[in-house]
């Protein structure tokens, strides 16, 4: 910020910036001005997108003054800043959230009404920024919301992908991916700051040189790109705070190469630009599987290097003593994607700030902490030494030195146990030499945390066992959380009003207050009102689905939802087997259709475009849905709905309407889950395995209000050790046999037996995630669900208790845990 050189004399430039007064008239005036002067249209010739943009600018105007203050304060005060480094932020729509945070919802609604505009029409045109894949990205968005609400100085750093997560469509039941051009209609919520761009280097060589008698190393890179920051406001809820989310966009350093241009090769001269801009072009659409792509490593280094430089140069005061860095910042590593920041900070401290290695390492270790989000071994990121050495030669040298010193420490502690050394080395040798990013993060981080109790335990006992033996105090747990502002207050306004009427408004920032609802679970009048809210949320969802060309939901159906990324470990296939089995039971006469509980099975899921098996499962769900929903013999009792392009916006409509939440991963595979929390908080009952945060949900809501099934994690291990033969389970359970046979027979593929054959044989002969082993207890649990649902009064009581006892899963609580256990940062006053 260049304000130091400016000598403003105009009185308005000296006076503090004040937000426009919040009144209906003031808001309307500001809105109309923005429509005229930013959109360049009058009200009468504006279209709905003009109006939406003008509204967004108006909300922004109101938040701006606080944003100026908070950034100035962050610079001036000595508070520690939480820098959340995340390759993904799955933000969801911004308008409603920002209106709510700034207490402007009613004012804006009324002001627009005076202009003849229904604010709901404007809400619909906002395209959500889908800058994330799933749980990990949505978690980052919840965390920055909570940190702003708790007045913790925070900067979220990430990438401003030009294309976010792909738009999913179905073609004959199969997923097709389309680009998500989310910026097409304008991006009113962010501000480009090209003047604050950072130059980010790649490739080249390193060399040593004599620096006044000291031998130092420097990196001589081969090419550069510019990282241009785009700032987004992250307003706290009703506290007047506005934090910053700073997303980087890649831009070529020289828009064209003049020499090439003059020589007449115009195309070649823009090639460099395209190459540079590719770095922030598209979000990698993988979830829980790494893709060894060079571009992805470029993305990671690009945003992390820009963020570290930005923090040191622009957020810290100019005369800052770099040795005090740990007092002013914690860089939280959201999974391994930003871990290249560790050698980058070392490079800055040693090569640029000229600190001794040991001093630099001591600082670095205090500045980073690492969150792991997985247990799948194949999801732990590794980079080949060749690739990393080519793209970031200096960083590879630094990683080698970190590893050498670390392995010396291991030898000192445990002796010359070569097996142990090999297992713990940051450099893996098989199948080829590579850098294990999770190990680098563990060695460098002040703390390492898992995202639910069971997950953190399994990290200590299995995935990072040797490290936990070496540094037991480094390991901790922070169970995930979700923001109650977006996922209860905004997504479920009717339930929110009911809660506020019962308990007062404080629950929005103190979610444990929901406990107060426990007593009301026994109040018949309250139960009736709670049930009415659920019914009305179902009707609202039904119209959303109809607007997307789906059939409306049937009254009286239980709404059974499974909404999450499509992955074998999450076991959508097990859900399909339940549906097929129920269908087959009716058709074969094993089940009396009149006794079957009417259900709508709702799926929402995207599969990674390169994940063939996941895509086949999508095809199967759609195929089964088409047959089952249409077969007259089931008398409309079973419906399958699978709206395409599940995203945050759709989640906000589905979750409040759900009766049953499917959380059926194989025990020991789902790190936490966060959809499970959102659904319980909105009064869905869970059917689930003892996995991830399900364990904690069940403990809190009580066994009577949760349908547990399946093997526990130790039982899973035991079965593997014994030798798992899925075909044995197929043989043993007649219901399972009939269901699988029906799929294999081509009943869902127009008689073609080949379509789902790979899926069927995978289940019978491999079944990595043991769907067949858990099938029979799953069906038993579904019977218990049916019985419970038949007693509507009892069901509603359980639903209320789920809400009442889910306060623990607020991301505000998660942030307090991070602050106490890891960050030790304090609020600004
Ligand atoms: C997810 C985990 O699968 C999920 O269990 C957890 O709730 C969530 O993170 C938040 O912690 N992991 C990912 O989304 N992982 C990647 C690489 O996308």
UniProtKB/TrEMBL annotation:
<comment type="function">
    <text>Phosphorylase is an important allosteric enzyme in carbohydrate metabolism. Enzymes from different sources differ in their regulatory mechanisms and in their natural substrates. However, all known phosphorylases share catalytic and structural properties.</text>
</comment>
<dbReference type="InterPro" id="IPR035090">
    <property type="entry name" value="Pyridoxal_P_attach_site"/>
</dbReference>
<keyword id="KW-0119">Carbohydrate metabolism</keyword>
<dbReference type="GO" id="GO:0004645">
    <property type="term" value="F:1,4-alpha-oligoglucan phosphorylase activity"/>
</dbReference>
<comment type="similarity">
    <text>Belongs to the glycogen phosphorylase family.</text>
</comment>
<comment type="function">
    <text>Allosteric enzyme that catalyzes the rate-limiting step in glycogen catabolism, the phosphorolytic cleavage of glycogen to produce glucose-1-phosphate, and plays a central role in maintaining cellular and organismal glucose homeostasis.</text>
</comment>
<keyword id="KW-0808">Transferase</keyword>
<dbReference type="InterPro" id="IPR011833">
    <property type="entry name" value="Glycg_phsphrylas"/>
</dbReference>
<keyword id="KW-0663">Pyridoxal phosphate</keyword>
<dbReference type="Pfam" id="PF00343">
    <property type="entry name" value="Phosphorylase"/>
</dbReference>
<protein>
    <recommendedName>
        <fullName>Alpha-1,4 glucan phosphorylase</fullName>
        <ecNumber>2.4.1.1</ecNumber>
    </recommendedName>
</protein>
<dbReference type="InterPro" id="IPR000811">
    <property type="entry name" value="Glyco_trans_35"/>
</dbReference>
<keyword id="KW-0328">Glycosyltransferase</keyword>
